[in-house]
DUF3886 domain-containing protein (Lysinibacillus boronitolerans JCM 21713 = 10a = NBRC 103108), 88 residues
Amino acid sequence: MGKKRKQQQHTDNSVTASLPKQEAVTLADQLGGDVLAKLKAAKQDLTAKEQAAEEERQAKLAFERKQREKNKSFEELLNEYGDKGTKY
């Protein structure tokens, strides 16, 4: 009885393995044109939102950097820049 089950499993696996090779159906083929267009639009919206968030984060970091530079004490500025021999 156990041997018959193994033989059935082998035949089932060989049938399913050869099926994808015969028919190469893509996801775009299975979806309708309007659904595919909606997915592409959603992807573009998502990338635009991510780009805007990244730009906002970069602007915030630049602002914080300027604020730290602005609020440095004289000692911190002297240690950072030292006496470089220039007037400014």
DSSP finds four helices and no strands in the chain. The chain has a mean pLDDT of 78.
